[in-house]
Amino acid sequence: MADYKRIDDYIVSLIQNSTPAHTAWNLEKIRQGKENDWNYIDGCMLTALMKMCSLTGKSLYFDFVEQVADYFVQADGSIKTFNRDKHSLDDINEGRILFDLYDKTGKEKYRLAADNLYAALKEQPRTVEGNFWHKAIYPNQVWLDGIYMAQPFYALYEKHFGDGSCRDTLDQIRNVHDKMRSAENGLYYHGYDASRKAFWADPVTGCSKNFWLRALGWFSVALADLCEILDGSEREEIRPIFADLMASIKKYQDPESGLYYQVADQGGREGNYLETSGSAMMAYAMQKGARLGVLPEEFRSCGMKAFQGIMDKYLSFTESGLNLGGICLVAGLGPEDNRRRDGSFEYYISEPVVENDAKGSAPFILAYTEVMQQGAAQDE
How far apart are CA 95 and CA 86, in angstroms? Predict the structure, then answer.
C-alpha cells in the first residue's frame, strides 16, 4: 500500500529546506554554487505547490510561493534577474504563479509583472511559420520544452487580462503538430529548425533525430493544462492533438513498471533507462486528461500505473527523509559550439541522472495532486 503521508512530508521538507535564494530542488544552481534567479525549474515546483495549496487549503504552500514571488517581483512589476534580451521562453514559465497571487492578494505588482512577461513574449522572435524561437541563442528553433514554458502562461494572460482569445497559442500548437510529429509513430521530435541550418537538424524536415521523453512530457503537460485553461471551440481544437499523443505514447509504456524510457521509442536498446521526470509528466497528463473528460477513462489507470511505478522503482525512504531518483538532470540541442548535444540516442543517455531535482519532483507532485483528486490518496 502506498505511503502517501510520506509524500506529504517530503513536500513539506522541500519547502523547509528552501529559501527564495537557495531552493532545495534546483540542482543546477546547487551544483554551480549560485544563488537562484528567475527560472523555469523553480517555476515548475511553485506551480505544483500552488496546486497543493488549492487541494489541501494549507497555507504553508501558498506562503512559500508568495515568499519567492516577493523576493523577485519589485513594486513596479520588474523582475529581479529577468533579462528580456535573452528572449528565453524558459524565463516565462515562472510567471504562471502570478495570476493566482494577484487574485488572492490583490497586489498590483503581480499584475504588472505578468504584463512585463507578456510584453516580452510579444517581442519574442518567431519562425517563418509564426512560432516563438526557443531562445535568442537558438535562432529559428522550436523545442517541445518551450511549448510548456510559454503557452500556458500566454493563454492564462489572455484569459485574465487580454481579450480572451488564444488564437496565437492554438496556431503555434498546430504548427508543432504539422512540423514535429512523426507520421510513423505519432510521437514528436524534440526540436525543429525552420531554417534547416542547425547541425542537429534533418536538412529536409528540420527536425532533430529522436524522441526524448521529457520533451514529450513537457508538451503533454502543456496540452493537458491548456485543455483546462481553454474552453469551448478552443479546447476542442486542442483535444484531438492531445488525445492522439497520449494514445501514441501509451504504446511505449513499459508493461512491467508502468514507466517510460529516456528515449521513448527505443526501450530495448542498451543504455536506455526508465526515466522519472518524463514518466511523471505522462502520469499527470493522462490522469488530468481523463479527469477533464478530454481523454478516454482508460488513461486514468494508465497514468496511475506510471505514478505507482515511480513510487515502486525510484522513491526511497531513508532516515533523513525521502529521495526521488531516476531524473535526467538536463538535455538540449546545441548551440553551435556544443556539438555534443546533437540529439542522438547516445547523447540523451549520457546526461547525468540525479535525485530530487525539480524537473522530476515537481511533475511527480503534480501527478500526486491528480491522485489526490481521484480520492486514492485520501483513502489510504
Answer: 16
Predicted TM-score (pTM) of the model is 0.97
What b/e sequence results for 207-244 when a residue is b if at least 16 CB atoms lie within 10 Å of its CB, and e otherwise?
bbbbbbbbbbbbbbbbbbbbbebbeeebbebbbebbbe
Q: Rounded to an integer, what distance in angstroms lies between the CA atom of residue 42 and that of residue 36? A: 9
Residue 319 host element (H or E): none
φ, ψ (nearest 5 deg) of residue 339: -80, -5
Catalytic residue among 42, 91, 100, 145: 145
264, 231 Cβ separation under 8 angstroms: no
Does position 364 have pLDDT exceeding 50, yes or no?
yes
How far apart CA 200 and CA 341 sit, in angstroms, is: 8
- Unique residue bearing C-alpha cell 527523509: 321
Q: How confident is the model at residue 1, as a pLDDT?
A: 42
Name residue 111's amino acid: R
What's the confidence (pLDDT) of residue 379?
45
The CATH number given to 4-379 is 1.50.10.10
pLDDT in tens, 286-319: 999 999 999 999 999 999 999 999 999 999 987 7
Active site residue 145: yes
Whether the pLDDT of residue 329 is over 60: the answer is yes
**Angle, in degrees to the nearest 10, between helices 232-250 and 213-229:** 150
The answer to whether the beta carbons of residues 285 and 357 sit under 8 Å apart is no
Helix (H, G, I), strand (E, B) or coil at 207: strand
**Alpha-carbon gap, residue 83 to 81, rounded angstroms:** 6
- Cβ atoms < 10 Å from Cβ of 203: 8
Cβ contact 328:353 at 8 Å: yes
**Cell of residue 216, nine digits:** 514529450
Q: How is the chain split into domains, by residue range?
A: 4-379
Residue with cell 531535482: 357
Task: Check if the beta carbon of residue 282 is closer than 8 Å to that of residue 228.
Answer: no
Mean pLDDT estimate for the chain: 96
Contact 130, 115 (CB under 8 A): no
